[in-house]
Amino acid sequence: MAIRSCSYAFLFLVAFQSTIIKGDIVLPPPPQCSPVPASTLEKIEFVLNLIVFKAEFFLRSSVGLGINDISPGLVQGPVPIGATIAELDNGTRNIIKEFGLSSVGHIRAIVDATVLNPPITRPQLNFSAQLFSGLINQVVNATLTPPFNIYANNNFLFSAVDASSLLREYLTGIVPSIVGNDERRLVTGIAVDEAAISGALRAQLYARVNSTVSPYTFTVANLSILIAQQVNQIARCGVKDEGLIVPLQLGAENRTTTNVVPADVYSLAFSRFERELLRVLFGTGNATRTGGFFPSGFNGALFRRIQILGLS
Ligand SMILES: *[C@@H]1O[C@H](CO)[C@@H](O)[C@H](O)[C@H]1NC(C)=O
Ligand SMILES: *[C@@H]1O[C@H](CO)[C@@H](O)[C@H](O)[C@H]1NC(C)=O
Ligand SMILES: *[C@@H]1O[C@H](CO)[C@@H](O)[C@H](O)[C@H]1NC(C)=O
Ligand SMILES: *[C@@H]1O[C@H](CO)[C@@H](O)[C@H](O)[C@H]1NC(C)=O
Ligand SMILES: *[C@@H]1O[C@H](CO)[C@@H](O)[C@H](O)[C@H]1NC(C)=O
Ligand SMILES: *[C@@H]1O[C@H](CO)[C@@H](O)[C@H](O)[C@H]1NC(C)=O
Ligand SMILES: *[C@@H]1O[C@H](CO)[C@@H](O)[C@H](O)[C@H]1NC(C)=O
Fold this sequence. Notes:
This is Desiccation-related protein PCC13-62-like. InterPro entries: Pigment-catalase-like. It comes from Hibiscus sabdariffa (roselle). The longest helix has 26 residues, at 181-206. The chain contains 10 helices and 4 strands; from the N terminus they run H-E-E-H-H-E-H-E-H-H-H-H-H-H. It has a two-stranded antiparallel ribbon. Strands 3-4 form a two-stranded parallel sheet. By secondary structure, the chain is mainly α. Bound molecules: 2-acetamido-2-deoxy-beta-D-glucopyranose (7 copies). One 2-acetamido-2-deoxy-beta-D-glucopyranose (NAG) is lined by residues 218-219, 221-222.
């Protein structure tokens, strides 16, 4: 009993210390927004699903190649469904290709630094144009005619921004809890690179902010706001995705409405954890109900635990 109350006191102390910085009490997030307890290796295995997703999506849509065409034998498993080479201007195609290749590098870094050996099992991925057009119909709350085509007219940038931003948010979330110097260097290196990528992609979209999304009447700014709202709603953990143009009170220091790099009131990067990501990527708002881009879910122990525990 004495041992028990002593360890409770210790836990309380740890919790108390970790929630106070300079007198500001930081409330812990509600359970549906909290990280699911996991080891460093399990977190890296979880994030691999996202990195593989981004690498396949960017490479197949820009140059029609997959991960194994770049680095033979790095992945195995089902071939992604519905991949299509996108209509992109040359400059945009080149940077999408570059950022697809960087993700292949990140996968190689992970297999070199951890016990996760190649070939990495690729989750089933769905890149079908119909999936995107259905999601955009939900986003604009209307049935667009003609259906929105993610692969036409540089529209791919919208999905590129979102894929990169979810990955960046998860990496931001896990970096502080990564155990081991080598592992921390690995995850931080990926996170900072992905943050730069995410900003570069948003800047590409921002360059078109006032253009209408052809053939519709809404602008790139309008759609960026509506997509962010939909992501926030389905993730269920507050406002973490933001449009390219925001009300002043969401802009940096409340003094600007441009919002190329979304961030909190201190301009610190937003974090998202496992369940938020799964709700969004499955498109179901439920971390254990697979669908959307990952019709068979994620691979790895952390996702299996989420399923076993029935964490929606
Ligand atoms: C874009 O790249 C293609 C293929 O490399 C080339 O034929 C075309 O001239 C380029 N277009 C522009 C506008 O640079
Ligand atoms: C991929 O998405 C399309 C459009 O939503 C859907 O019709 C198709 O069944 C999906 N494929 C899988 C394997 O889930
Ligand atoms: C979506 O559109 C329907 C029909 O036009 C409308 O009744 C509903 O209020 C709209 N929902 C939102 C969230 O705007
Ligand atoms: C978009 O339009 C606004 C309002 O006209 C203007 O202030 C802004 O400079 C434009 N932005 C870009 C990137 O063209
Ligand atoms: C689109 O953006 C313009 C300019 O910011 C705004 O006036 C308009 O109300 C927006 N339209 C929709 C449908 O949100
Ligand atoms: C900006 O506005 C938000 C919300 O109104 C507030 O919490 C924040 O302290 C303000 N930031 C600055 C620098 O005034
Ligand atoms: C989430 O999905 C799982 C699997 O489909 C289901 O069993 C569970 O009831 C759902 N939870 C909620 C809150 O909808």
